[in-house]
Amino acid sequence: MTRNLPPENLRLVSTLRRDGSLEIRLEHAPLLPPGPGEVVVRIAAAPINPSDLMNFLGPADAATARFEEHDGQPRMVAQLPPAEARALAGRCDMKLTSGLEGAGLVVAAGEGAAQLLERNVAFLTLASGTFAEYATVPASACVPLPEGVAPRAGAALFVNPLTALAIAETARIEGYRGLVHTAAASNLGQMLVKICVEDGLPLVNIVRRPEQAELLRRLGAVHVCDSSASTFAQDLAQALEATGAAVLFDALGGGAMAHRVLAAMESVAAARLPAYSPYGSTEHKQVYVYGHLDRSPLELRHDSYGMLWGVSGWVMPSILERVGAARAAALQQRVVAGLSTTFASHFTQEISLAQMLSPDAMKAYSRQATGEKFLVNPTL
Predict the structure, then answer these.
(1) Which residues belong to CATH 3.90.180.10 in the chain?
(2) Radius of gyration from C-alpha coordinates of the chain
(3) At what angle do helices 210-218 and 187-199 cross, to 10 degrees?
(4) What is the pLDDT of residues 215-254, one digit of tens each?
(5) What is the CA angle 25-30-32, rounded to 5?
(6) Cα 25 to Cα 264: distance, rounded to the nearest angstrom
(7) What is the separation of C-alpha 333 from the centre of its chain, rounded to a whole number of angstroms?
(8) CB burial class (10 A; 0-12, 13-18, 19+) of residue 5?
(9) CATH number assigned to the domain covering 159-320
(10) Per-residue pLDDT tens for 256-308?
(11) Which H or E run contains 28?
(12) Domain covering 8-156+345-376 assigned CATH 3.30.420.40 in the classification
């Protein structure tokens, strides 16, 4: 069942050339009707998440890029540093579509998916990309939005809300009494504060500026540590002692913050020892790296962490798989129920597909600054 679909779909594609240049442009690609169990969504809203930037922009610097037109559409070309280009050599000459999540109106449905026709849905895709006019996705990847909820309100239903819930879920199922979170004033961080307040889960928030700390306190956060404050080390130690937090979920992925937190956890744990031990405590301390906002190398000095500690990568989908389909579905429904409260997303600017490739907009959203989340509206 279809409307009169256009023959082509305007979409954003990113291609790494063999000379080390990264090209990002808009192109028209054939738009095929949906197959069995599939729908075509006319996209009205798609957030730009850090995970999307890693895909289509990567290490490219928008400040030094060249912006021009190609076949009547905007294009950006940036030369990558040789080491960065070599690290990405596996994607040479591939056209990568981008955008993990979005929302819009279902305008065509294949066999078995007619129930979604003419419905506004939110969806997650690893294949089609949401920085486009249309996306063809499995009906199973779609969540119908409640009556009266606009695509803009449901566009960020998956990545940040489910990641925040999965962080809290990980702390619970692994038996941690409390947790620590970096980049805590982000959209995701604000959701995590609300979740932990609702669930009574002790949370230590690390931010970079006093105004960010105040923002989180207004949301109900009890323990907020400002890394720019001269008292940061003392504040962090006091928060760790009060909460018993022994796991860090690190959105930075680089620099010395993970080291500072691990060392502080060990200092608090060592203070509880009945007698001095030259080897440190046996309390396990864990860092889960789930982001890469800081592109510098991750700094670790393991002689400061006691005898038991770990650092590993962490991703939301593996946790949802771990907790099982029934629990994952319950978490998803919690997000839908809280779209206007706990899981509300705030966007500072709404831009068109073409504006994604304007110098000013790209420089702004590639900074990934706290409180500056961009929303793409392909209908503009």
Answers:
(1) 8-156+345-376
(2) 22
(3) 40
(4) 999 999 999 999 999 999 999 999 999 999 999 999 999 9
(5) 135
(6) 46
(7) 19
(8) middle
(9) 3.40.50.720
(10) 999 999 999 999 999 999 999 999 999 999 999 999 999 899 999 988 999 99
(11) strand 21-30
(12) no
